Amino acid sequence: MTKLSVNINKIATLRNARGANNPNVVQVAKDCERFGAQGITVHPRPDERHIRHQDVFDLAEVVTTEFNIEGYPDKRFLDLVKKVKPAQATLVPDPPDALTSNTGWDTITHQHLLRDVVAELQSEGIRVSIFINPEVKYFEPAKQTGTDRVELYTEPYAANYHQKREQAVKPYVEVSNLAKEIGLGLNAGHDLDLHNLQFLKKSIPFLDEVSIGHALICDALYYGLENTIQMYRRKLDTE
Ligand SMILES: CC(=O)[C@@H](O)[C@H](O)COP(=O)(O)O
Ligand SMILES: NCC(=O)COP(=O)(O)O
Q: Which of 40, 152, 217, 218 is least surrounded by CB atoms within 10 angstroms?
């Protein structure tokens, strides 16, 4: 089964637009779970432009599925994650001013940093995933960091899906088979949506989890949050 983790960053973006507490990210997380989300993902960025550190503490009190916190592993992020102890931390190489995530780790150059961080978080009982591009050369070095999983950066797949989906998914299938062979769990995310999700799942049936935010929240404007989560779940329901 591939789990659907709903990324609620955009709910916080909307809340922050007015300064009060509407929409309430804690209530939305609870509702996402009630509507079928199998995990909740947040990516607290250093400028707190959407998810704030306090949100992460508040969410940790209520999330009953799988809480996944994404971010660059600086001291502030690591302190937060170690206090909250989510089910999973996803390490992303974003600089502080990144508009959004736009690449995975160079696991060769940053192997020592990643190895230390992975060990530090695992010693707190937190599963670790490393955000990664679909390039074979990064997988064995990723494995050597001791990480439990990798998360495939799917923006290039999403960007090319409508032109030639077989070609767009090919590097992902290749690295996923490699990940399976060397014993890495497999997540995927970024720009997945109702059009491209099912083909990814069919091409890589053993995906452990996808985290989806931007498109899912946009779709919810039209279909409603409950319907939308169920629509995404059905796209993953191909077994
Ligand atoms: C790692 C990843 O792909 C997601 O965190 C994505 O970047 C969402 O972050 P934003 O909502 O800040 O764009
Ligand atoms: N890890 C990817 C994620 O959480 C959501 O990315 P997106 O769907 O907002 O592009």
A: 218
